[in-house]
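Translate sequence into structure tokens.
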Amino acid sequence: MSFSDHTMTSPSLLVAGSNSPMLGLTIAWHPDSNRVGEQFIVADPQAELELSRFSPAFRLAGKDALPLGHGGISREALRIQRNGDQGVLITPPASRMVVEVNGVPIHAAVHITQEQLSKGLILGLGRAVLICLHWMQCLPKTNEMEGVIGVGSSAILLRDQIRQVASTDFPVLLLGETGTGKEIAARGIHQHSQRRHSQMVTVNMAALNESLAAADLFGAARGAYTGAQQARKGLFAEAENATLFLDEIGNTPASIQPMLLRVLETGDYRPLGATQDLHANARLIAATDQDLYGENFNQALLRRLESFVIHLPPLRERREDIGVLILYLLKQNKLEYPVALPTSLISDLLIYDWPGNIRQLSHVLRRILLALQAGQPADFHQLVGISKERSSIAPAAQAIQAVHPVTGTVGKTVEATQSARKKLTDLSEDDVLQAMIRHDWYIQGAAQELGISRPSMYKLLEQHSQIRKAEQIPVAELRAVLDASQGVIEQAAHKLKTPAESLRRYARIIAISALSG
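Result follows.
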């Protein structure tokens, strides 16, 4: 869920100097809550992964690796095939296990684009285990930090950035949408700095009264304004040798912005009505969910605040962390659920885009548990305060349905064409050939589209006059086509007119025999 390490460098890429992302499979939910957050990383951009009850082995950094294990998951493997940077092909197994992609049941192979994976994709297995497919820019690592929760590369990088800048006195600017945890990040910087023995001072700049803002921040001499019966200590003085967190910096009154600029440039400020400057020793951290690059914010001040910038990603861009966040929020708020949270409800929580981010997730969890404790149905749309028509779950599901199950005919999905053909005698050679082409030469997807079993599909392939057996293709031709296809099996299978699975196996045999000979 969260990790322990004090490394201050940025997370290392799997391949030095490479910007190619790795495919991450993170357990987003599991009947055994201890498994949530475990990962399996696919580094090879051309890899083919078989996901079943017994493989692969998932792990948390620094912990033992275990397969999914749950009895609701098929022994038959679901295939996940990467195609370089083009995305992945997901082929469900020939079993009774229900497979869902973003909450939508699939019965045939679906292609998921690189863009869709960048948003995180929820793969449901047997209505019991939920896996998030997402990109990883770095290897998993243990670098635990209180409150900064997550196992994805965004969370890892955030913790590393906090540790890097904590050892300095640089001003820090935290940018992120509302509810992304900017104050938690600020506290992380303070707690890992040499100032951690002093209390961090926090001020909401939006709550400052403009006429008294200067006195609030910098203090005031006696008699500096009506009612100033004695000298007043400002927040900069209160944060001496500590950290001053300026939240909602975008709402700073215009008259105060030049004063803040002077403190950042020289370290000096003058209390209201005073005759001498004071020197500030407070370390500044500022945060906002606004765009500071417009005309309404002092651009010179912005440049000073930009000494070190940390972007906190929205929750919809780190979907792989939602499961561990749910468990963390339940524990932090001492919330106990009387019955197991329904997997369908957890799936909704994982798929939703969360405009209010972690803060909104926390509030919705409270409402869900209150409803369950009262014996009421936990309707996600009602509890999150949206109508089904406006739910961001629906567009995500529709995108998978409408675009990515490979279409059998124009305007019809694979599911719509499956029932049209059941008998082998009804299928022409062209039907078989076109189904194989549409499914990148993978047998399972083509068989499901045609509405026949995998053994029946093998029979049709053996009898086909145009489709070739991989082992009967001359080695020289096979190697030439693989070289021309730059090792992309799907492209080579299309050119050779042979099933991709058997081509991959035969290519490996050739490589082994060539090495041994």
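Note: Residues 357-373 form the longest helix (17 residues).
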